[in-house]
Design goal:
about 160 residues; alpha+beta; four-stranded antiparallel β-sheet
Length: about 160
């Protein structure tokens, strides 16, 4: 689930920059300090047929890699995606045997998705694959704000007052 969320955020950032990626690395890591023997990290590199910044396509590829890597008996402490082969979205290298990078409808959908999320807040509109069931409450990978460190050097509100 976390890798799908990370690939969705990465796609959003790619579109904001006007870029597309054609390589995706999905990784899962166990704690290095546990009693389990190595290896501690597992990864899969997938090559996309055409460079893309489409959230639907990147989440689909991340789920394929995750199914290949996931081992139910392991307890993972870290997961994520890394995008490589980043190139301008307007100059993507097409493949002779594959369809173009994005259909016109899908491109409009991604623009609207980004517009709504900018207007109403990050993650307001997302793919159903990224949604939690109602009984799960809040996402387990989201940080807890009470553990956040104060930002003394960047926010005046966090500056300590001495009287």
């Amino acid at each position: 689930m976390l890798t799908c969320y990370a690939s969705s955020r990465a796609a959003e950032k790619l579109r904001r920059q006007g870029d597309a990626a054609h390589l995706m690395t999905v990784f899962l890591s166990k704690s290095r300090y546990g009693l389990e023997p190595p290896p501690y990290s597992y990864s899969a590199v997938l090559t996309l047929p055409v460079a893309t910044s489409d959230t639907v396509e990147l989440v689909r590829v991340a789920r394929v890699a995750l199914k290949r890597l996931w081992q139910p008996k392991n307890r993972y402490t870290k997961a994520g995606v890394i995008l490589d082969g980043v190139e301008p979205a307007s100059q993507t290298q097409l493949n002779l045997f594959e369809a173009g990078p994005l259909s016109e409808k899908r491109a409009k959908l991604m623009v609207e998705l980004d517009t709504l999320n900018r207007r109403f807040g990050k993650g307001t509109v997302q793919l159903a694959a990224l949604s939690l069931s109602p009984n799960q409450g809040r996402a387990p990978w989201k940080g807890k704000i009470q553990w956040r460190t104060p930002q003394y050097t960047t926010r005046l509100e966090d500056l300590l007052m001495v009287s």
